[in-house]
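Marked as duplicate of an earlier ticket. Keeping the data here for the record.
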Amino acid sequence: MIGNSQYKIRPLCVALVLVWSGISVDLHAEQYSLLEAIEKAQSQDPWLDGSRFREESLESLSISAGTLPDPTVSLGIANLPIDSFDFSQEGMTQFKVGVSQMFPRGKTLALRQEKLEKMSQMQPLVREDRRAQVSVTVAQLWLEVYRIQKTIALIEQDRSLFEHLVDVAQSSYTTASGRTRQQDLIRAQLELTRLEDRLTMLRQRRESQLAQLGEWLADSSYELAIEMPKNLGTGHLKDPLINEIETGIRAQKLAQILMAHPKIRSVDQKISAEESGVKLAKQSYKPQWGINASYGYRDADPMGNDRADFFSVGVSLDVPLFTGKRQDKQVQAAVAEREAIKTERTLVLRQLRSGFETAESQYRRLLERRELYRSRLLKEMSEQAEASLTAYTHDDGDFAEVVRARIAELNARIEALNVEVDIHKIVAQLNYFLNPSHNKNSAVLTDVSSASGELIDHE
């Protein structure tokens, strides 16, 4: 039932998620709703852990990059006479201790640190996009398992009807009380065999999908048992930012929403890091400075008189005079890299827009198909099946037509299920494109209709 704590809905850190009440998975005797499965997949995604380590690495590198290089210490003996190797023989002989320190060009240190900090700030945005992608992937797999399991249930329900048709045909053929022919009996048995084949194929697909879902849930045994409600629920978009989908969203509003997408924001952050890279490349035109100091100790002369020690200090710098093939090219390379990332941003924006428009078009057409199935098609198919059966029982119809009508009715119900599941899968994609993760108050995208709470037992 919807009110059971088993189907309690908890908010995700990702603002826009799909909520389907009443669907749960039995994994090692634990029950998971769809929302809980998404949370579990996100919490156990090793890619997110790798991103956190990359962020930590870049933060550490940024601190290191903003630090001056280590000073250089030198020890040596200068002007030692080689005829006697006597330290006190010559006045120029000395023991020297020196230290030197280089200073990077201009604002190189600050800009290196800034670039790495901006690169580290990309990682939370990349993780945000990854979590949204995981949400879509798990929802797609979950719904595919639901589709297969529900289809199996529908076929199982109708199999008894086809078995009954076989019995009727057998009885009519044996007693010769009707117009049943041997080919009608064979046709009825053939359709029943085909149903068995469809069930076998569906079970194979279900096992494959369960294995893929088990991968995201970090389950090595893949022993997942799906329990489904009688009605999936008919979700519809109700967030104020996107409830214009059914009538067509304005291009300006769509652009604003997509510009706030974490995938675009991560590229923007990358562009910002490359801006710092351009500034860093321009520092190569500035000189690099260095200072050095040394102390020279001298021994007393052969007569025992003290000698003065020496102290030296100096400044060094390099002057970039020939910049045509080094500094100019470094700046050009940095600018080209920045522009290349700007084109990447354009491509990502186009992909998001195209993906949204494709999903939106499919969503609207699926809504039309759902309305057609609900208002007319299912009812008409049922009436056709009943009419053909009534005509046959009154010796006014063909048995083959009865079988065809029942098969068509079953296929129509399965197709109606496919439309419902496809709507939810498209909603999952729309949630990804229109993910207002910057707005934590926008948490509900779907509304689940009331369900009877009756569950179809897992075979």
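See parent ticket for discussion. The chain is about 60% helix and 10% strand.
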